[in-house]
Each structure stands twice: as structure tokens, then as C-alpha cells.
Design goal:
227 residues, mainly alpha, 2 domains, 10 helices
Length: 227
């Protein structure tokens, strides 16, 4: 029996495989760069050089980051890196660049070298196995960049911020018992407050403070004189 075809099979611009966009935050920034290269290299240094020498090398890396000259749009790390305290934004800043045509060739070359040299981490028991979903995904990046443009404009950190506001913060504000209903009520009230703020702003009701309004009303009030 032949397999059923999706209804979008003959649509000219609905190839689901080409519509899968790259996830910069989890696949590249946190995935391959932080979880793989940074963590693997730190473990590799400890394995090869021992704890004391490895910490010296890490301090030297910190020093190089700290003395980087300030530049517009580039975050400065005066205290070095401190890998364990880095946020996703910190990693994204260190990887910040502009993707040109020759950058695609550099990415493809870096991917070939990455897959060629990565077995050393497995051989030295730095990692028990490789994260195949992340490492498979990066093979598609050159093609995805050509299809959709530089991936700097698309990052799941945008939806991550929404997740924090819509899920994490309401969860913290709840009493943790049957939290879902409390979270939904919280989000409903926040939406109403946001809509009310827009309406008040539209009518000029938020242009000043209550104190300044009261003072203005007092100054403009008609004065009465007693005989």
C-alpha cells in the first residue's frame, strides 16, 4: 500500500524540509559553541595538562578577552569570560559577525575540520557520545543561509524571551499548587493592563504624574475672595 502524500506535496513553495529554519540559540550558540567546543576544550585541557596548567591556560584566554579593544556594538569582557557564568547573549556576542559570500566557504571548511578532528574527544573520553541532532543540524547551515539569508536575524532567543514572560514569571508568582490556572489568570490580567495602558496613553492620560496633575488643577482652579 503506497504511503499517503501530504496535501502540500505539489505546492511550489511548501517543501517542509526547506522551511525548517535554523535555531541559532540552541543549535549554534548554546549547542555547538558552548556545550561542545567550550566545554569540550576545557575538559580536554584538564585531561592533557592537568588541573593547574589547564587553569593557567584558561586564565590566559580570559586575559585575551579582557584586553580586547572596545568597539561599537561589541560587548566588552573586562573580567574575562568565566564560562560558567556566561549567558546566551554573552556567547552570541562572542560569535557576532557579518556573513558574506566568502564566509560560506569558511563555514563549510570549519565544518569539515570539526568533523575530522572531533573523534579525539571521544578517544580521550572527554565525552561519552556526540549530540547528533546538533551536529547534524549545522551541516545544513550553509544551504539555509543561502535560502533565508544570514541567520543573525532569526534566533529562538526571541521566543525564549516570550516564554520567560508568559510561563516562567507567572509560575514564580503562583503558589505552585494547580499553577496552570493561576498562570492563565495572571497572563489575562497582564494583557488587560497592557491594553489599558495603550488606551490611557492614546487619550493622553499618562503624559504626567498624579502629583503634577493635581498641582495643575489647583493652579487653574478659580479663586474665591471673601469680604
Amino acid at each position: 500500500m503506497p504511503l499517503p502524500k501530504p496535501f502540500t506535496n505539489d505546492f511550489p513553495h511548501a517543501d517542509i524540509h526547506q522551511l525548517i529554519a535554523p535555531d541559532i540559540l540552541h543549535q549554534i550558540i548554546k549547542g555547538c559553541f558552548k556545550d561542545h567546543l567550550v566545554v569540550w576544550m576545557e575538559k580536554y585541557l584538564h585531561c592533557i595538562h592537568g588541573k593547574r596548567k589547564a587553569e593557567q591556560i584558561m586564565d590566559d584566554i580570559d586575559h585575551h578577552l579582557a584586553v580586547t579593544a572596545p568597539f561599537t556594538g561589541l560587548q566588552h569582557f573586562p573580567q574575562g569570560c568565566g564560562f560558567k557564568q556566561w549567558t546566551g547573549d554573552d556567547f552570541k556576542v562572542l560569535m557576532k559577525n557579518v556573513i558574506m559570500e566568502d564566509t560560506i566557504l569558511q563555514i563549510e571548511d570549519a565544518l569539515r575540520r570539526f568533523h575530522h578532528y572531533r573523534p579525539i574527544f571521544l578517544k580521550l573520553s572527554i565525552v561519552p557520545t556526540f549530540s547528533l541532532p546538533h551536529q547534524h543540524a549545522i551541516k545544513h547551515y550553509p544551504d539555509l543561509i543561502c535560502l533565508f539569508g544570514a541567520p543573525n536575524s532569526l534566533c529562538s532567543s526571541m521566543t525564549e524571551n516570550k516564554h520567560i514572560k508568559a510561563v516562567k514569571q507567572p509560575w514564580r508568582w503562583s503558589n505552585r499548587y494547580n499553577a496552570l490556572r493561576q498562570m492563565l489568570v495572571t497572563n489575562q490580567r497582564l494583557d488587560k493592563l497592557a491594553a489599558l495602558h495603550v488606551d490611557f496613553t492614546k487619550h493622553g492620560m499618562l503624559n504626567s504624574t498624579c502629583l503634577s496633575d493635581a498641582s495643575s488643577m489647583k493652579d487653574n482652579a478659580p479663586q474665591s475672595f471673601s469680604h
